[in-house]
Amino acid sequence: MESLIGLVNRIQRACTALGDYGGAGDNAFSSLWDALPSVAVVGGQSSGKSSVLESIVSRDFLPRGSGIVTRRPLVLQLHKTDDGQQEYAEFGHIPRRRFTDFGMVRKEIADETDRITGKTKQISPVPIHLSIYSPNVVNLTLIDLPGLTKVAVEGQSETIVEDIENMVRTYVGKPNCIILAVSPANQDIATSDAIKLAREVDPTGERTFGVLTKLDLMDKGTNALDVLEGRAYRLQHPWVGIVNRSQADINKNVDMIYARRKEREYFATSPEYGHLASKMGSEYLAKLLSKHLEQFIKARIPSITSLINKSIDELESELDHLGRPIAVDAGAQLYTILELCRAFDKIFKEHLDGGRPGGDRIYGVFDNQLPAALRKLPFDRYLSVQNVRKVVSEADGYQPHLIAPEQGYRRLIEGALNYFRGPAEASVDAVHFVLKELVRKSIGECQELKRFPSLQSTIAAASNEALEKFRDEGRKTVVRLVDMESSYLTVDFFRKLPQEMENQKGGKPEAAAAVDRYGEAHFRRIGSNVSSYVNMVSDTLRNTLPKAVVYCQVKEAKQSLLNYFYTQIGKKEGKALAELLDEDPALMERRMQCAKRLELYKKARDEIDSVAWVR
């Protein structure tokens, strides 16, 4: 049966394939990688980190040199195989290629590091993923991080010290990370960079394992018992001492299996450490970490499962939001386009009917803009005494009027009514602008349409084209209403005028006749009469113009905004339909990533459940 560590390793590899590797990964959802327990190896430069890792793996596979050698995190996943099987390694960036020569593994690590950072001394948070399959390892995941440093050397940025520390913190600061703090025995533990950082992120020491290297290089007469026995610095877990290969052994390519044997002999025969021999050495460290990691994972299965379930819900919701893939046959594509048009049309009607904001602006045109425009018409200037005299005189021609200046009245009224054309057409244009804006908003609010920028543009163009036709018809209708008022005057209004004049003069017709028909008072009265008639027409138009605008523009937009588009779309061939459903490449990529991640999370949940039930 697969171990929990092996299962976690597989899930981590799958996460890596999707670009989710914690810290520098995709933060759109809670990172599954971050939730999975792992072991981060932390230490200062030249503390012996690389030698510890190679001792655990029993292979010489890491690049070596002076200064910063580890310039990218190395996620090392160890998989124990059956005895007798060949050892091999695989990289996450070149899957399905097996490396059996570990010298080539070292070269690939160096080349892959240079691929991101260049042949410089800079660092990168993007990890390298390496899996090693061997009968000589235990199931374990280790993350080798760049060595902590105190000063920047030539060729490095001035912020390199902070950059490395921040990178290390992104790993060791997570509550699911076990810290393997590596310190050299030939330096004062109080100055250990690894212990200092571990104490800051794990003050209780619950997640920290202390490793003491270079025990064989301590000055004669000194030892590290105070540290190993927890007197100098106590951790919740026991310290483990390691004896690395010497530089001479490395130069001679001494076999790691032989080096392990020498390490066991060193502790077994050491007068200082002999009583601790059973709990010292790289073999013991590997088994200790593997056992603890297994328990660590088991204790966190409920929280991991909870995170996975939450992420599955988020991913499914995101996929519903992004929409499902489009069918390839023309019939299904036409059906999809019509459904999208109906979704847009539904939102557009909701704006008009009050389900969404915006339709009230049309009422604002009728209730505010139109009355204000009517009030601003220059009737005071047009019906001034001077202009009334001028118009009436011109209407009389060479023969002045004998009784009432009927032609003057008609010409004054027709001229005044022409002023109503401006507000009438302005109302049409104002409503047209509101309708266009509602089309734009409706397209933006239609989630289903967001996937298809080409279809968005086409629907917008078709809608605006239809609105232009409705506007033209609206203009013709409102101008017609104004012309209708000019073409036939309300006779009853004028029949009352002589009677009113008689009443004003005490019921004496002869007195009325005696009035100077060419005096200022006469023309002022004509202007007043015309003004009264114009006001009556203004009140009428204030009620009829909105009816005409709504009938010609708003009602038509509600009923037949996309009718012409529907007839045209039905004639299109499959290729033209596919072009309308040409999605945004970024959105397509997002959907594909969501689908892959959803598949990964569901598979991870099923596998974790199956292992958890068995255990």
Task: Please outline the helices and strands.
Blueprint: H1 4-17, H2 32-35, E1 38-43, H3 49-57, E2 74-80, E3 88-91, E4 94-99, H4 102-117, E5 128-134, E6 140-144, H5 160-172, E7 177-184, H6 193-201, E8 208-213, H7 225-228, E9 240-241, H8 247-251, H9 256-269, H10 282-299, H11 301-322, H12 330-353, H13 360-375, H14 379-382, H15 385-396, H16 406-418, H17 421-445, H18 453-487, H19 491-504, H20 509-513, H21 520-560, H22 563-569, H23 574-580, H24 585-614
Mean pLDDT: 85
Largest sheet: 9 strands, mixed
* Secondary structure: helix percent: 55-70%
Question: What Rg do the Cα atoms give?
Answer: 44 Å
Number of H/I helices: 24
Looking across the biggest beta sheet, what order are the strands in? 4-3-5-2-6-1-7-8-9
- Which spans of ≥5 residues are poorly predicted at pLDDT below 50? 23-30, 499-505, 510-514
The coarse silhouette is elongated
What is the CA-CA span between the terminal residues?
10 Å
β-strand number: 9
Q: What is the percentage of strand-forming residues?
A: 5-15%
Alpha-beta classification: alpha/beta
